[in-house]
From TrEMBL:
<feature type="active site">
    <location>
        <position position="284"/>
    </location>
</feature>
<dbReference type="Pfam" id="PF01435">
    <property type="entry name" value="Peptidase_M48"/>
</dbReference>
<dbReference type="InterPro" id="IPR027057">
    <property type="entry name" value="CAXX_Prtase_1"/>
</dbReference>
<feature type="binding site">
    <location>
        <position position="287"/>
    </location>
    <ligand>
        <name>Zn(2+)</name>
    </ligand>
</feature>
<keyword id="KW-1133">Transmembrane helix</keyword>
<keyword id="KW-0862">Zinc</keyword>
<keyword id="KW-0256">Endoplasmic reticulum</keyword>
<keyword id="KW-0378">Hydrolase</keyword>
<feature type="binding site">
    <location>
        <position position="361"/>
    </location>
    <ligand>
        <name>Zn(2+)</name>
    </ligand>
</feature>
<protein>
    <recommendedName>
        <fullName>CAAX prenyl protease</fullName>
        <ecNumber>3.4.24.84</ecNumber>
    </recommendedName>
</protein>
<feature type="binding site">
    <location>
        <position position="283"/>
    </location>
    <ligand>
        <name>Zn(2+)</name>
    </ligand>
</feature>
<keyword id="KW-0472">Membrane</keyword>
<feature type="transmembrane region" description="Helical">
    <location>
        <begin position="331"/>
        <end position="356"/>
    </location>
</feature>
<comment type="similarity">
    <text>Belongs to the peptidase M48A family.</text>
</comment>
<dbReference type="InterPro" id="IPR001915">
    <property type="entry name" value="Peptidase_M48"/>
</dbReference>
<feature type="domain" description="Peptidase M48">
    <location>
        <begin position="215"/>
        <end position="418"/>
    </location>
</feature>
<feature type="transmembrane region" description="Helical">
    <location>
        <begin position="180"/>
        <end position="203"/>
    </location>
</feature>
Length: 423
């Protein structure tokens, strides 16, 4: 009797959905709690807590519905053999436009674009509701529908333009890789990762937002002084007009060797004073100083190498392809099958990466505190939570599974403990 691959995959899909739904319901119950955590009582105003609670409950409702629809769609795709059907239609399209349908690269690129478009169509009503109902009701969304669809079109074009040559390269590597296939695939993914790290902030991000040099003044001077004191290879400091799309705030760094800092204009406005903004940057520089980015990148590379090794086994199994409705073994479909077969393991890896990330966040907080920004960082975290209406009450199981950053109550408690020890 043949091993029931499809039944196991569907069982894994449904089991993961049930586990994540259980965690989501626990989180939903935590969000409904009428009282602030003890750590945050007297720190966050009752008015902000009430707004945050309402916003996060709305988002929680939406997430539960979205995940149910996604699980139902994924199950139907597997049960009704939608992928084999779409693969055949993609080949027919290649033939229709006068190209060679027997060419696996052309066929795969056609399939890749079809999947991109189909995914966008499925996600469109959820994106519209999220942006123009939930985010708008809570005064976060600032973009018009025209800008929304413009950005959506740009994203689809960029994904197609960048994805097509990557798909072609992967097929070529697999066809010619031989005994060193895993090494070649990993080497290619490494080059792509580094290239995108360089290309995205320079060529892609400016398509969605305007980036201007942070004006001379106290804030720029304080950031430059901090960078100098830490030997941080600062190249540029930019301000991004994030407020044109949303009132949520963010700050990030980019660059392989020399680093540039990007500050949301909303971050500067929400933090209100220089010390809080610089404290946030001190935290980010802590990640750099403690090599967290390098360690995370290295861990991902190891995982990718293992993944490619498993993929090499999966792609050679004609039984797996037959179970998914294919009588041939297209390389790109091999990746699709691989993703479904190792889905439970990927979730375990994701959980482990979140644990590591949460630990790194605490360490970066400690770093900022040790160089004199502990009080300012704590004030900045509270301020940003109030302005972004982030979750205040969180279920420990849910946050451990989903959050790459510790909840605010845990970070404030940890900083309080450090301040007590220092005192």
């Amino acid at each position: 009797m043949a091993f029931p691959v499809m039944e196991v995959v569907l069982g894994s899909l449904i089991s993961l959905y049930l586990v994540e739904t259980y965690l989501a319901l626990r989180q939903h119950a935590a969000l409904k709690l009428p009282m602030l955590p003890v750590t945050l009582q007297g720190v966050i105003s009752p008015e902000k807590f009430k707004k945050s609670r309402a916003y996060m409950i709305d988002k929680s409702h939406f997430r539960i519905v979205h995940e149910a629809a996604t699980m139902l769609m994924d199950s139907m795709i597997l049960l009704y053999r939608i992928i084999p059907w779409l693969w055949k239609r993609s080949g027919s399209f290649v033939e229709y436009v006068g190209l060679d349908a027997e060419n696996e690269t052309l066929h795969s690129i056609s399939f890749f674009v079809a999947v991109l478009v189909s995914s966008q169509i499925f996600e469109l009503p959820f994106s519209l509701y999220s942006n123009f109902v939930i985010e708008a009701q809570h005064d976060f969304n600032k973009q018009t529908k025209r800008v929304f669809f413009k950005n959506l079109s740009i994203e689809l074009c960029i994904s197609s333009l960048f994805g097509a040559p990557i798909v072609a390269a992967i097929i070529s590597i697999v066809q010619r890789g031989g005994n060193y296939l895993v090494i070649y695939l990993w080497g290619f993914s490494f080059v792509v990762s580094v290239t995108l790290t360089i290309v995205y902030p320079l060529l892609i991000a400016p398509l969605f937002n305007n980036f201007t040099a942070l004006p001379d003044g106290e804030l720029r001077k304080e950031i430059e002084n901090l960078a100098s004191s830490l030997n941080f290879p600062l190249e540029n400091i930019f301000m991004m007009d994030g407020s044109t799309r949303s009132t949520h705030s963010n700050a990030y760094m980019y660059g392989v060797f020399n680093k540039s800092i990007v500050l949301d204009d909303t971050l500067i406005k929400q933090c209100q004073d220089t010390d809080k903004v610089v404290a946030v940057i001190a935290h980010e520089m802590g990640h750099w100083k403690l090599n967290h980015t390098i360690h995370a990148f290295a861990a991902i590379q190891v995982l990718l190498f293992v993944h490619f090794g498993v993929f090499d086994i999966v792609r050679q199994s004609s039984v797996l392809f037959q179970n998914f409705g294919f009588d041939t073994q297209p390389i790109l479909i091999g990746f699709f099958i691989f993703q479904h077969v190792v889905m439970p393991i990927q979730h375990i890896f994701s959980f482990c990466m979140n644990l590591i990330s949460r630990s790194s966040e605490f360490k970066a907080d400690v770093f900022a505190k040790n160089i004199g920004y502990g009080t300012a960082l704590q004030a900045a975290l509270v301020k940003l939570q109030e302005q972004n209406l982030s979750a205040v009450n969180t279920d420990p199981w849910y946050s451990a599974y989903h959050y790459s950053h510790p909840p605010l109550a845990e970070r404030v408690a940890a900083l309080d403990e450090l301040n007590k020890k220092s005192a």
